[in-house]
User: Fold these one by one.
Assistant:
Number 1:
Amino acid sequence: MSATNYRTIKENLSGGRVPILFLLFALALYQFYSAGFSMFAVVCMIPILVLGVIFIFRYRMATFWALCLINYFIQWKNFPVQGIPTSLPNEMLELLLLALAIIDVKDSKFERTANIMMGALLVWGAFCTLEVLNDTSGLGLQVGAWYSGARMMAYQLIYAFLVYILYITNPKQLIAYLFVWAGLSVFAAFWVWKQQHIGLTALENAFLQGRGRTTHIINGGATIRLFSVFSDAANFGVNMAASAVAFFIFGITSKIKKLKWIFLATGAACLWAMFPSGTRTALFCLGAGVAVYVVLSKSTKIAIPVGILGLLAYVLLAFTTIGNGNASIRRMRSGLDKNDASANQRTINQAVMKKYLADAPFGLGIGMGYENVPANNKYRKLATIPPDSEYVFIWIHTGVVGITLFLITTAVMLFGACCIVFFQLQNPALRGIGAGFCSAFVAMQLGGYANQVLMQFPNCLLFYGGLSLVYALPHFEGEWIEYEKEQLAIQAEKERIQLEKKRAKRV
């Protein structure tokens, strides 16, 4: 560096230009946080974006971990970002990761994507693409509305599948991912504990007293359904139930003690966190996930005690009043009440929907809702009835043809994954990981049957991406066996050293 250039840099620093630039960047970030995109914010953030692109190209896995974090916290009430769609950060990172995989195609594992799940997702994606031609409402083609709906209903499923199967390619990455998921789940459990015992933040309370008042403050204010870092209590409760199933299975099937205790502790935290949500469906999600594992385990030693515990839990909830002093348990118990007013109202709503959909076999159209179906339209009523369920939502927008196809493609991808666990995988611990993903996927699907949570953040990426990993497991089972041997050898050596120390103390 020449003396002249050095003096110029020194003068810039001493003149205070660098601090001014940092202040401008900070102001741009604040404006982006509070008001969304603006020309000032975009211009000031260009240097940061350039550095970000360079970092992304050099550290691809860091971008994947960033996606996992953003996906989990994107609907946290304490981080509202105005002026941009909620799904935009997720989609940008997913598409960026796919672009990087295509650029580095020689080292990417694209051959692993050729499986039943990819085929099923492409069929569903193709159907949702053709739905752009659906003009049931007689309003002409609404391409913008269709794309907004199709992104969430179909394309994000394909993105989740591709990103996970392309970026988690060996045992160490798989364990790292399970640790990240466990850490996020434990934080969500901690945050609901904080909401319960310390209180809500101002933004969380604003949601509770506003949009969430009718669904989250119940029993005359005696019960408050908590939601942690999620969009709402139903989303949180179902996620915790499905996560609890997965981590309990990961824990009981792991031979590595460190992993076993971490996963079991995470499962216990998720199970506890499920109750403050007051989401009654969560109990059924938990039971469904456990039932799937009983089948996949191929073990009567597991099936008999789990079956007895499940039956005992059902009897205690359905036929006794044990635990009624706890509002969360009372709320869960009401899910078994056949005369529950909420369930009856859903039945009435679905009967009305069925009459309208008799004339609309392809549904109202993806993206069509109360905001774009006028008051004088035949299907206005259908557009304004709350679906209360992801399956009902799909039924409304794609008709009996769409919901039938969705059920078939979902069953196909789940069946394919279960076959891999049941027949292909030989290592017990790896089979347990596969079974955990399958069981959690079923738990989440049941949640989607009763609540509109299946395509919500963070569920889609977690559980569709998780199912895609089952299809990746056979490709690195050999590496897993070596990894497990290495870890067990380290574990045995530590136990030997500890035993020698104990013996030395006795002497």
Note: The longest strand covers residues 217-218.
Number 2:
Amino acid sequence: MIVRSQLNTILSRLDEPRRFIQVLAGPRQVGKTTLVNQLVEKLQVPYLSETADMVEPDNREWLSERWRAARIQMQLSGANEFVLIIDEIQRINNWSEQVKLEWDSDTATKRNIKVILLGSSRLLLKDGLRESLAGRFELIRVPHWSLKEMQDCFGFSLQEYIYFGGYPGSAPLIHDEARWHKYILQAIIEPAIEKDVLMTRRILKPALLRQLFAVGCAHSGEQLAFAKMLGQLQDAGNASTLANYLYTLGEANMLEGIKKYTIDSARKYQSAPKLQVYNNALLTAYQGKGFHEELLDSKRWGRWVESAVGAYLLNQADEVGFEVFYWRERDDEVDFIISMREKVVGIEVKSGRRKMNSGIPIFRKLYPKSTSLIIGTGGLPLEEFLKVDLAQLLSIV
């Protein structure tokens, strides 16, 4: 069983004096619960691990009961330290207010109860962490699985990772694509939309959000104006509704609408988004014709390659501290733009999708302080890029 790097991070923080609530946030089926199971095996102090998955959303008393149980167990054990772990915390309405109350009570009475909360991606941040719990937490992001992790754990080839993506639960099913497809739809996509989006956001048109997600995944790696999306969706309303729903799907680490790079903020937000999945399994679920068939079609395979690069960038963006954009003027384009403080890097993916592209030279003329990076033919090999430490790479390009 693979040990993700976030385990060492949380262990080191638990070794420190009690200061902050530790929050593990990431999308479904990336191993947050497994990580906690690995954690408790290594704990040298008593703990209580609970999940709110089946708790009624309005049952705030459930949280108080868990805290009381932790305090009683700590007192009975005579321990000087205790760890309380609560999974699926976002299931409870106004959970942050109750957590703040209990945490502050322990702080005031000097109870050394260290707290770990688990929740689904950035949706968790908007509903409490920045408000009720401001200054009381540290965030540990748990992203989708990388190429290296899927290779180390399941022996994936580069091509298998690009096509089937990085959901560990689906890995044993890739040789039965019909079964794999059902798993992605039923065990990952549907619960993510139903539990992580619709139950934590006020969505007036759930059917429209589902349609938008399906269209967005099928067009991953492509720019698609909201006006064109409106033509493909039923009861679509207006572009503002689509933009809000796309933003929500991005918060859930499912589908992002990457904006055009420009120093003009107004043009940035008015640009057609470049749709990008966070995990290539989502592209394949809605667009894949079959692993071998797609692999033999160089033009279509280029879409999967470019989408895999985009997914890797999005998964690393928050952790490393950069933003991801694209750039295009008429027929000239740059696949991805990384912006990190004063550094701007244009990234072109050489995948066979385009024979010639003058986007990088033109972009660099417009932005003389920028640098560039070629991934694929004539540049950094694709497999090496998908394994690289992006913080280190950005320090040298």
Note: The longest strand covers residues 332-340.
Number 3:
Amino acid sequence: MTFKEIMTKVQEKAKEIDASKTNFLAVQINLTGENGGVFYVEIKDGKVSAEPYEYNDRSCAITMSPENFMKFLGGKLDPVLAFTTGKLKVDGDVGKALEFSNLVK
């Protein structure tokens, strides 16, 4: 799956997320490897947006392979297990990363 295809899936998923109880959350996703890239997901005033840019003022950054990210996005990879096994790395507030993963579920 190319980075562009991943971004399309993320933007589709963003439309499904109920973020009505979240005031602000900004998560940068760093995808490693051949089809990798950087994008962010921002939740502001209950609205979710995803754009293919770095986010300097982020709550946290999550780094993983594109394959593992797609499993995570599809609910087939538990984020806590992925974190403890090294498939997912968090830079910044781990609590915010967990909040993000709960919203994606």
Note: Strands lie at 24-31, 37-44, 47-51, 60-64, 89-92.
